[in-house]
């Protein structure tokens, strides 16, 4: 039985090899290939972490470079791009897929969309506590905490024009500011302004993710 299990494991690794590969740069942008896997010559998957957002044109050129650099030729190649802080397998920021022809998609917010959201201060009356941008899993949401009329308000603005407000309660936890929904919620969601300025999102089970401040 053990011998059969070892044979199955070896066979799986041969069919689906996956490993940390290398760091490189292209057109002045640093990136890291954090995983490569393939199924024979049928298809290949490359997971890349970019140091910052780039244009669709950049992704197309990088995809062509990566495909040309592959020593083996695959019928299909799928390239997934993640930004700093994004967790692999939780939704890529962008993809460049050869299936078999190249198709580039930015699933999260583009450079232009993020800039427009950050500069949109309509309906944000009050004293700002802080602002953060969430691009995890392509969310594209700006979070703004405000003091308004003796209340703490959390304003969320989405890239498609959506906007909603929630009254919050401010507390302290381990020297950090904690914000909970005044009306409460079943999962116990709350926010913590971390020591590095990031806005951490938590629930009853613990840490979920963090988002960087808008500077």
Structure in a nutshell:
The protein folds into two domains: 13-106; 117-211, Lipocalin. 17% of the residues lie in helices and 45% in strands. It contains three helices and 14 strands.
CATH level 3 topology of the largest domain: Lipocalin
Arithmetic mean of pLDDT: 85
Apparent shape: elongated
Head-to-tail CA distance between termini: 59 Å
Tally of individual domains: 2
Weakly predicted, low-confidence segments: 1-19
SSE order, one letter for each helix or strand: HEEEHEEEHEEEEEEEE
Percent of residues in helical segments? 10-25%
**In DSSP terms, counting alpha (H) and pi (I) runs of 4 or more, how many helices?**
3
Structure description:
With 215 residues, the chain is an alpha+beta fold. The chain folds into 2 domains: 13-106; 117-211, Beta Barrel (Lipocalin). It is built from 3 helices and 14 strands. The chain has helices at residues 2-15, 56-69, 111-119, and strands at 22-26, 29-39, 43-50, 76-82, 94-98, 102-106, 127-134, 141-148, 151-158, 163-173, 176-181, 190-193, 199-203, 206-211. An 8-stranded antiparallel sheet has the order 7-8-9-10-11-12-13-14, covered by helices on one side. A hairpin with a 3-residue loop joins strand 5 (94-98) and strand 6. It is elongated. The relative contact order is 0.09.
């Amino acid at each position: 039985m053990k011998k059969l299990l070892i044979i199955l494991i070896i066979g799986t690794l041969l069919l689906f090899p996956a490993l940390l590969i290398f760091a490189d740069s292209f057109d002045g942008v640093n990136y890291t290939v954090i995983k490569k896997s393939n199924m024979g010559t049928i298809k290949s998957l490359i997971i890349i972490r970019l140091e910052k957002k780039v244009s669709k044109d950049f992704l197309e050129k990088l995809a062509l470079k990566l495909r040309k650099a592959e020593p083996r030729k695959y019928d299909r190649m799928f390239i997934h791009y993640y930004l700093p802080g994004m967790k692999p397998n939780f939704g890529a920021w962008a993809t460049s897929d050869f299936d078999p022809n190249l198709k580039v998609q930015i699933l999260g917010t583009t450079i232009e969309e993020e800039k427009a959201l950050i500069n949109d201060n309509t309906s944000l009356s009050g004293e700002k506590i802080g602002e953060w941008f969430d691009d995890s899993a392509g969310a594209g949401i700006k979070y703004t905490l405000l003091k308004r009329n003796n209340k703490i308000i959390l304003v969320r603005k989405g890239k498609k024009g959506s906007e909603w407000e929630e009254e919050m309660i401010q507390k302290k936890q381990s020297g950090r500011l904690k914000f909970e929904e005044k009306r409460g919620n079943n999962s116990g969601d709350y926010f913590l302004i971390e020591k590095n300025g990031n806005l951490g999102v938590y629930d009853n089970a613990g840490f979920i993710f963090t988002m960087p401040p808008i500077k």
